[in-house]
Amino acid sequence: MAVTDPVDARLLAALAEVGKVAVHELAAKVGMDPREVAYRLVALSGSGLPLLVGVESDPNGLRAALAGAWSRPVPPPAVRPAPRPAPPPAPRPDPVMSTWGPPQTASWARGDQKQPPQRAGRIGEALPARGLDGEQLSVHLLEVQDPADFLFGAAGYRLEAGERAVIVHTEVINRGSVPFVSLPDNYLELVTAEGKAVTKAPVSLTSRPPYKIGVQPGETAGGHTVYVLGEATRIVSVRWSPRPEPDERTLTWTLD
Length: 256
Prior knowledge:
Distance between the termini: 43 Å
Low-confidence stretches: 95-101
Structural class: alpha+beta
C-alpha cells in the first residue's frame, strides 16, 4: 500500500526509526497531538500496513478501579417539586431600543454592543483563543525569523537546493481553569500568498527550544516552530488553530 498523506508518511518514518514506542512518546517526537497520532495509527493498521497498535495496562489496577466503581451506593432518586405555572410571556423588545438604547443617550450614539473577540493581528500582538475543551488561552506571536537557514544548519540539518528555513516564536498563556493538553503549536501554520498552508517541520533546534505538550492553568509556555519551504515562496500570514481545519477559533497574524 502506498502512503500518500504527508502527515502519515512523517509519522511512519518516525515510527520506523524506533520500531516500538508509546503513542504519547511518538507524538512528542513528531510534534503532534497524541489523540491524532493514535487515530492515524489505528487507521493505518487497518489499511494493511505491517503495523500493530496495542494497549498495555495493569490488570489488577483496572479490576480494583472497576470494583470500586460498581460498589458505590446508588443514591435514592431525587424528589422533584411540583412544577410551577409558567410565567406570562415577556413583552418583545423594541429592536431599535435593544440595539441603540434610549434616544438622546450616549448608547444611542455609539451602540453599546459586546464586541466579538479579536481574531486577527500583527507580529508582536497577543490574541485571545479558545481550545477544543473550552480552554481560555492567549496566543502571542513574538517573532518570525525568515530566513533562518544558519540556525537550521547549525543544528545539524541540511536544506535541499531551493529551500529555506523559517522559525516562528510564540507564547501561549492559559488564562482559565481548564488545562490545555495538546502541543501548543500543533496547528501553527504559515500561509502563502496563494492561500496554501505550510505545516511545521518535524525538527527542533537546541538553540531555539520547541514547545512541550500541555499548558496548565495560569502557566505561560513558549516555543519555537520550524518550517521548511521554497526560497521563492512568499509568506503573508501566520495562522493558529486548535484543530487541523481552520474554524471560528482560528487566529491570524498578518506579516505584510
